[in-house]
Every structure is written in structure tokens, then in C-alpha cells.
Write a structure and sequence with these properties.
Number of strands of chain A: 0
Largest interface: A-B, 30 and 41 residues
Strand content of chain B: under 5%
CATH architecture of chain B: Up-down Bundle
Radius of gyration of chain B: 22 Å
Order of helices and strands of chain A: HH
Helix content of chain A: 55-70%
CATH class of chain B: Mainly Alpha
CATH topology of chain B: Sodium/glucose cotransporter
Order of helices and strands of chain B: HHHHHHHHHHHHHHHHHHHHHH
Number of domains of chain A: 1
Structural class of chain B: mainly alpha
Oligomer: heterodimer
Radius of gyration of chain A: 17 Å
Distance between the termini of chain A: 10 Å
Chain lengths: 82, 486
Amino acid sequence: MVTSDQGRPYMTLKTARALTWTYLVLAILAVTWPGILPFARIRPLIFGLPFSMAWIATWVAGCVVVFGLLELVERKHRTEGN
Amino acid sequence: MMERWVWITLVITAYLGITLTIGLLAGQRSTHTVDGYVAADRGFGLLVMYFVTGAMVFSAFAFLGGPGWAYSRGAAAFYILAYGALGMAPFYWIGPRAAGLGRRFGYVTQAQLVVARFPSNNLSALMALLSLIAFVPYITLQMEGAGIVIEAVTDGNVPMWLGALLAYSVVIAYVLVSGAMAVGWTNTFQGIFMLVIAWTLGLYLPQRLYGGIGPMFEQIADAQPELLIPPGLAVDGEPWTWGGFSTSIIVSVVGLTMWPHFFMKAFTARDDDTLRRTVILFPTFQLFLIPVFLIGFSGILFPNQPPSADFILPFMILETQLPALVIGLFCAGALSASMSTGDALLHASASILVEDGAGRYVQIEERNKPRYIKALVLIIGAIAYFLAIVSDLSLVQLLLASYGIVSQFAPTVLAALYWKRANTLGTLAGLLAGTATSVFFWVYPDLRPWDMHEGVLGLIVHIPTLITFTLMTPAQDEAHIHRFFS
């Protein structure tokens, strides 16, 4: 287990990758049938957009966050020579 | 007082002039080798890679077709929004892996990588041929898009054939002179243009016509609620099927990074970090589809109608009486979308024909290759232009079919990179079976179960064929695998 200066464990690479893949699988399920069914609706409008459009856009935007975090964890491991 | 169309033509001319200058200047930075011409000396940083990726993926099809879909098919367009980021994600791993092998062994195309793992001239030629079949209608559509936009905004004073000729003369000039370097730097310029124009217009039109985005959707929801609920409508105006909506997303997710002109851009990145960050940031570019759709939606309750759904974007801009400068800038944005995809396609198809087609059968001297590639850029450009001007072929139909073909490259590439047991015969059998299935269901769409996309049906046949034929035949030589995987 890699630990930080304070002795707190970082997330392992394996966990980070598993979480990323989980997100991708969930995202595909969420935007295709049948996962999208509960969200295939107009209201409530989100920032003025139909609910289903905002739902899909949120999963797209989430990719930036998830992959950004994965990259952070990977870089930490690379610089520590793991 | 000069007429409006003259002003617009001046803006377009200025835009084309700037693009040409950037393209020609870019070439001074690259070497006169195959590496330089095809892979930009593997030197692109994050800024260029970000825009190369975004502007290349989003073509005239997204910029003109996207609003057209939102306008005529409503929520069906959301499938275009759904697949981009998810399709790009695997490239976080595939990109650096391919780039590493490219640096070590000198690959510049997708098929070179695959054939290095599965040595077979026939496999190489098959991939080159399929790429070309997928590319030509795609290039033709980009040319048509450019010509149509110019014709529309100049009130027909610059006809479609002339507009397409002008725009693509510029593209061919900078691709001939500067190769991948020109594609990179012009796409950066064009990408910025696309983003700015799309966001500005997409937020402005709903505000101007309906008093805001929310009020616009409230009104559409009252008048035509069926348009706002996925899966939206099919081409014939009937409700689209969930099978069609879902499998269109899946085939696009699988196929996106497998487009050979996209895949080979992995070889142009400076390093692995650049590639990974390009993937991370790609969704921020992709979200420009939101304003693009808003433009289409703003046309739904508009009293007048465009001649066809694909015209909705230029139509809305002309109908709302915007100043000539703005119309000209919009037009440049649409041209950017067309040209930034068209240049990469022309450049890639010529490179692929030389490297993976002819080059596998005839000995071509390395230093002569850029010359042959350039000759082919001209020839393919001429063929596509000819088709754009004269053909009555349904190009959109051909383009949809090409996604089915391109998605079949996915199992092949993944097997090459990650499955040590895979062998040449299995790969070849899988690719042939998958492509044949995909083409079959494209020709007989009524036979598709649950309205599934033919590319997904192709994959359902492809993957078991690949595995079965591989396991029935011997594994590859240990030394060969070691060389590739170490």
C-alpha cells in the first residue's frame, strides 16, 4: 500500500481503474435502454434543458471529473516509482 | 451600398485566407520524411491535440446535421451527445499503448500496428480498402456541406460547386504542402471558431426568439411533447425505437476511436501524458453539441420552414436578420467543421493507401513516399469532388453504413494490443465475417432484429468468429509476442 507523508493511504491504482471502469459501464447503462427509461422525460427542466438532455450531458461532463481523478492517482504513483 | 451577400463573401474569403496561411506556415516546422508528413514528427502538444481531436471528430455532419436532427427528430439527436465522451474513454489506455509501439517501431497508421502483430499483406490491404470505402462518402459529404452553406448564405450567388471547389482547394493546398502539421494547426484555428460560433448562436437564438432556453422548451413541450422525450422520432416522423437509439450509441462508442484517421493521430502526440489529457478534456469540447442542438430546437416553433432539415442552421441565421458580418462568421464556423474533418480524411486516406495498400505489395522507397501520398491526396480529392457535384447517391446512407464498417476494426485492434493468444487467421476471419454481416444488414434493414444498428449485429458475429478461429489454430510464436508486448 502506498502511503502519503502523513501515513494516510492513497487510493491504489487498481481501485482507481476499477472505479473508472465502473463509471463507464454505469454511464453506458444510464444512456441506453432500459437504464434511461426512468429519465426519458421532459420535466423538471434543468438549466432550461429537458430533463433527459441534462441527464445525458451530466454523464458526459462526469467523464472529465472521473478521468481527471484517475490521472491524478496515476501520476502520484508514477512519480513515486510504483 | 453593397449587397449583403458581397459582405458575407468577403468574410468567407478572409476566413479561407487565414486558414490557408496558417496551414502553409505550419509546414515549415516539419521534416520532409514520412514521419514528418504523416505523423507531424510526433510532436503535437496538448493544445493542438485537444483541437485536432475535437474538430476532427465533429464534422459538417455534427454542425449542420446535428441541428437538423434536433429540428426534425427531436430527442433522437441526444444519441449524438451520448456517445462522444464514452467512445473516447478507451483511448486513455489504447492511445498511449499504440503510441509507444509507434515510437519504437516507426508506425504511422492503424493497419501498420495491426499487421505488425498479425503479419499478413491481405489483412493490411483489407483494412486499407475498408478505410477507403468508409472515407470517400465521408469526404464527399464534407465537400457538399461546405458548398451548400456557402450557396445558402450568399443567396445563391456563389453556387454550390464553386463554394465546395474554393473551400477544398484551400484544404488540398495546405495538406499537400504541410501534411499532418497543417491538419493540426488549422484544426486548432477552426476548432476555436466552431466552439465560439456554436455557443454564441446557441445561446442567442432561444433568447431572441423565445426569451430564453427554458421558455423555449416550455413552449415546445406544450406544442409537440413527443419531440422532447427520447428516443425521439425516426426519419419518417414516426417514433424512433429504443433498439435503434441504444445500438446507435453503442456502435458509435465502439467505432469512434477506430476511425483510421482518428486512430493514427495517436502517433502525432508528443508523449503519453499529452494523449491522456486530450482524452480527459475531450468532453469539454463535445458539450458544444448542446448549443448546436439549441439552434435546431429554436427552429421548431418558428413560423417559416427551411427547404430541408439540414438547412435549419443557415436558415435560422438568415431569417433572424443578423448582420452580414455575423452571418459570414457563422458560415466560417460551418466551413471550419467541414474542412477540419475533410483535411484529416484526405490526408489519412492517401497515407493509408500508400503505407497499407500499395506499399505492402510494391517496394516504394521511403523518401519517395510523401510524393505518392500527395499525388493520392489530389486524386481522392478530385474523386470526392466529382461525387459531390454530380452524384444523386444517398451519401448519408453510405455514411451511416461506414460506421458499421469502422466499428469492426475494434475487435481487430484490441486483439492486436491486448490478447496474446490471438492470431492472424482468427483476426482475418473475424473482420471478414463482421464486415459481411454489417453490410448484409445495411442492404436488408428490414431483417434487423429490434431495429439494431448493423454495426452491432456485425460485432455479434465478429467477436465469436475471432475467438473460435483463433482457438482452433495455433498460437503465435513466443518470440514474436514477446517483441510486441515487452
